[in-house]
Design brief:
The chain is of the alpha/beta class. It has 10 helices and 11 strands. It folds into 2 domains: about 90 residues, Leucine Dehydrogenase, chain A, domain 1 (Rossmann fold, 3-Layer(aba) Sandwich); about 120 residues, NAD(P)-binding Rossmann-like Domain (Rossmann fold, 3-Layer(aba) Sandwich), CATH 3.40.50.720. It starts with a strand and ends with a helix. Bound molecules: NADPH dihydro-nicotinamide-adenine-dinucleotide phosphate.
């Protein structure tokens, strides 16, 4: 039976560390790290995420700014708000909650954020830094997975890591972080032939596809570490991952539950990036 990787507990541990670092930073510099979050529209899941981010900020001693816009907002108004936040020295991190309504170009919005305030690490400049191994900000969800693995003393070095999903926010950056940690990486997607044969060869299996209970026990190598990034809401309101947890935990050595696995780590990493942004901003001002 696998050991459960407790993302809630590890996240609390990480946030406590960030809180202590923040107290020290404020004492030393007189600057309070601040995160600005923009929410467009009324998507219920996005509202929950934004509320959690706001609470996370307050918990570690940051200032949290929230800007809410109706779903029919013009793209130009949103871009103007980003310009204003880019220019505001009291704001260290800017995050636009995705997804955005279809009339707004997500790419234009991401590109508009000052890379030095891009705490989601989605801007192409930060993507480039990640690819070359010089990331200032690491994308929150993949960084959270690495933190979780480190907490449970899973060293990816020399292991075969299979990632299912190749999105820009999870799968691809996860591949870079795993390479940096010296894993041998295979990335799979919807056109992968005989997916089960590939996933069965994984020492570390990371799944981010958005399909409830898609990965079954017979797709997992006995003793593998299984990281389930998926969050799927069932018709009855319950959340499930992309892995059939009850059967997978019979085969794996370590496994993340959903909820309570990767999700809580994502916010902790966002807070970490915001603190880094504030630290870098103070350094620039001193120059
Ligand atoms: P996307 O929809 O952007 O990407 C899904 C990926 O899964 C694509 O690369 C797709 O392949 C692949 N895929 C879909 N079906 C299959 C299949 N049958 N076999 C193999 N691969 C398949 O999703 P995201 O990466 O944004 O999110 C994935 C999941 O993670 C979602 O449930 C999301 O809610 C969750 N998530 C959780 C976070 C957290 O904090 N825990 C943060 C972000 C996301 P192709 O490219 O070929 O279409």
């Amino acid at each position: 039976m696998a050991q459960r990787m407790d993302g809630k507990a590890v996240s609390a541990h990480t946030r406590q560390r960030i809180k202590e670092q923040t107290e020290f930073f404020i004492k030393e510099t007189g600057v309070t790290p601040a995160l600005a979050v923009i929410l467009v529209g009324e998507d219920p899941a996005s509202q929950v995420y934004v509320r959690n981010k706001h609470n996370g900020c307050l918990e570690v001693g940051f200032t949290s700014y929230e800007y809410r816009f109706p779903a029919n907002i013009e793209e130009s108004t949103l871009l103007a708000k980003i310009d204003e936040l880019n220019a505001d020295p009291a704001v260290h991190g800017i995050l636009v909650q995705l997804p955005l309504p279809s009339h707004i170009r997500e790419e234009a919005v991401i590109h508009r954020i000052d890379p030095r305030k891009d705490v989601d690490a989605f801007h192409p400049e930060n993507v480039g830094h990640l690819m070359t191994g010089h990331a200032i900000f690491k994308p929150c969800t993949p960084a959270g997975v690495m933190e979780l693995l480190s907490y449970y003393k899973v060293d990816p070095c020399g292991k075969h890591c299979v990632i299912v999903g190749r999105s820009n926010i999870v799968g691809k950056p996860m591949m870079h972080l795993m390479l940096e940690a010296n894993a041998t990486v295979t990335i799979c997607h919807s056109r992968t032939v005989d997916l089960a044969a590939v996933t069965r060869s994984a020492d570390i299996l990371i799944v981010a596809i958005g399909k409830s209970r898609f990965i079954r026990a017979d797709m997992i190598k006995p003793g593998a570490v299984v990281i389930d990034v998926g969050i799927n809401r069932l018709p009855d309101g319950k959340l499930t991952g992309d892995v059939a947890f009850e059967e997978a935990e019979q085969v794996a050595s370590l496994i993340t539950p959903v909820p309570g696995g990767v999700g809580p780590m994502t916010i902790a990493m966002l807070l970490q990036n915001t603190l880094r942004a504030a630290q870098a901003s103070v350094k620039r001002m001193k120059k």
